[in-house]
Fold these 2 entries.
Entry 1:
Amino acid sequence: MRRLRLRSVCTIEPGLTGAESERIEREFGFEFAADHRAFLAAGLPVNAGRRPPPPGVIEAYAEPWPDWRHGDPDRLRGALDRPREGVLFDVEKNGFWYDAWGPRPDRTADAVATATAKLRDVPTLVPVHGHRYLPAGRSLTGHPVLSVWQTDIIFYGVDLADYIDHEFGGATAPGAEPVATVDFWRDLV
């Protein structure tokens, strides 16, 4: 959180309490990764005082910091659903197919239906900022932050601290190699 405070890139409210984190996890059906939870406990970055985005900016990213305390539940669900929806978009519009799903059905509608069913078992990605995500799962820590745009997925930080430096200026971890270990998403990196 200190990194964000030093760069004055957002407003930082008091961190989420344990009870707030648990309520969020229950309401939205995921668990924050341990380091993500600790980050949000240290302070909650919010978009207070931001000007409206310029024309042409995707509405979904108009408020890049998810406001887990006061945010619109539908917007938060949308941010949680966006990685899977992006994959489905690429299945339907761009011919994407994940080999582990078996042969791609000939009809696009059948391919989308199959992919929808398969994606129910894919680990949830939790938004950190805009289209930057960390995997859900309390036992997880130290995972790289992923930049997720449909099936175009890249590492955007070796871990959460490195991501903050990379995204908002600062020295990034020299020579460190990110290692994604979360099923499905690691294969798209």
Entry 2:
Amino acid sequence: MNRTLIIAEAGVNHDGSVDKAAALIEVAAAAGADMVKFQTFSAQALVTATAPKAAYQQRATGADETQFTMLKRLELPLQEHASLKAFAEQRGVTFLSTPFDSASAKFLVDLGLSSLKVGSGDMTNAPLLLEMARTGVKLILSTGMARLAEIEDALGVLAFGYARRDERPSRQAFAEAWANPDDHARLQQHVQLLHCTTEYPCPPEDANLSVMATLRNAFGLPVGFSDHSEGPAVSVAAVALGASVIEKHITLDRTAPGPDHAASMEPDAFGDMVRQIRTVERALGDGRKVPRPSEMANVAIARKSLVASRDLPAGAVVEHADIACKRPGGGRAPIELWDLVGTTLQRPLLTGEPFGY
């Protein structure tokens, strides 16, 4: 059974509070998530002073302030990362974060993270992708808003960064690395793709889960799903379609002020989703069409055998009309009916008695 990696996306739902961040870690652990993910950034390095908010951010936090002002109050202090990472490990979940700039990426690598998440907004940020690949850490790359050609470009940058750390980067060098089988093989060891639709909440009709198969076929990498839809249904369906990773936002309160709370799941709902995913994993099975242990006792009860349709004397030549197919199974199978016709009975049979060999 393949086990789906479940990431509880705490994101900025801590609202700048370390205590809330710790509470979100508790929620992720209690729900059975494998990882809990935050966002590591400096508002100063991330956006200009006048950058507007997205429409969903304006709906959640108002349109009066700038994106910079909003993000400034949502920064997770760098000095708190180590203690939160240790707390997560105590609770049995892996601490993960998305860096939004090179200094944040270096900080997380120095903190000891062996994996980093790349947000959809930075999938076209080749300088940042290159820096992260050159650290050697594994990457989970979200592909929201992207076309296949843009994903290929990003993977070329990563292939180059993992394999050719001392060479001068260029678009030509990235393309060569993508085309090189050895460089491409490194991607399979280091990169997972996440299909994603960058809208909060994402309408179900825009989830487009079939794209996961497209990405697997196009790039030969494991593919998961970063889910911004409401409720568990789309994530559970993604697992049924082979998602290797599920990422879903968590919050302590969906009604809290903040950009992502409304598109997140509260603790009980998130835990229920995890249980549904684990049930689907067990239900997927191994793909071998053979009787399962739980159904073996029903084989004889549900199937049929060849039995006498009337009393027959010894020495009778069996005719088609002498044979009926009735439960229970375990005797001669119905597919043997035509072999039985024309044979001579060695002993008498009463109505309903099974034919022997």
